[in-house]
């Protein structure tokens, strides 16, 4: 019978193959479509996302909103941590679903409000996951890791392998950012914003359409949290197992 560690290693191996896979012809064709979609989206929507991303990074690195009352879980096995994280994933998926349905039913203004609200839900989730895997989110280096996990979850197929390598080799990556401000200086804002927009644009635009906004908003938000949950869980599992290696 396989040990839990062996089961996790197999799941990690499959996930690693998935995130490092070369872009397909479908990815290349959809990139062209996505570029055209971006040109059709009103500047007001682009500005909301851009501002939300910038505020998110600053809040993560220099704010205290997400670190309050969060303490690393000590003395727990990987299996116990995984179970607690699975519970969090289910909780946040339902939270995102309700939020998406509510803003989607409210028309364009509330639909636009969904962008920063959904970002906040995603960040709270990531901070909870980090704590459950035993990492102290009051340490700015752990908050940097959270931002890289976020970036990996929403990076394009053309950049995903590069971001994965940074996550997988975190001890080397974090040395590039000796201070919080160093990351703020180095981060490529345009690239991060564009990747996030490309990931959510078409689906979120449908959320602004009267009559179907509530249904689309609920489904899309639920799916976004499911995808983020898978990425976060595997990223932190990888670090836990690396730290356990002599």
State the helix count. Answer: 11
Number of domains: 1
Strand content bin: under 5%
- Spatial shape: globular
How would you spell out the order of helices and strands?
Answer: HHHHHHHHHHH
Oligomer class? single chain
* Helical content band: over 70%
Low-confidence stretches: 104-111
Structural class: mainly alpha
The radius of gyration is 18 Å
- C-alpha end-to-end distance: 24 Å
The count of β-strands is 0
Biggest sheet, in brief? none
The overall pLDDT, averaged over residues, is: 78
Task: Describe this entry's structure for a reader.
With 246 residues, the protein is mainly alpha-helical. It has one domain. It is 78% helix and 0% strand. It has helices spanning 4-19, 25-40, 43-62, 78-104, 107-132, 140-154, 160-168, 170-173, 180-186, 189-207, 213-244. It is globular, with a radius of gyration of 18 Å. The two termini are 24 Å apart. The model is unreliable at 104-111 (pLDDT under 50).
